[in-house]
Amino acid sequence: MDLTRKKILAAKTLGIGKNRIYFNQKNLAEIKEAITRQDIKTLYQEGIITIKAIHGRRKIKRRKTKRSFGKIKKKINKRKQEYVKLTRKLRRYLIDLKSRGIVDKELYWKLRKKIKMREFKSKAGFKEHLNSLGVKFDEIKYKIEEEKSRKKINKKPKELKENRKK
Predict the structure, then answer these.
(1) Which of 53, 100, 114, 137 is least surrounded, with the fewest CB atoms within 10 Å of its CB?
(2) Where in the chain is the domain with CATH 1.10.1650.10?
(3) What is the phi/psi pair of residue 121, to 5°?
């Protein structure tokens, strides 16, 4: 007697795997007559169909081997977006510091790696770290003001030319 279809039906109705279903060998004729889910439930309540206990430690022991980096499925869009925004902001700021000559090449690459490792939570934390390294922001402010004054000087001749044309 082939009762594989009955086993599948019983597994679906009881909500377990088909390998855990056990049919009582004395009452196979009754199991063969069962067609609906309700019939399967009544046979289970009567004790003709039984469920085998779980063997092994798979449910108890955490599946550490399967939880590697590519297997973890979580919604990461928001975290990833935050990471991208922060790293772009910090990298832009670091490039700006490098172009002004405040940060040398070696320190630039060390800081860039730290940004990639997400060591800084914000731009303020990044500035604090720079202060602890000995980079002085007074120099930065001075250099920024210097650049602004240079830009103003460069604008003056253009303004003069415009005034002459009028």
Answers:
(1) 53
(2) 4-51
(3) -90, -20
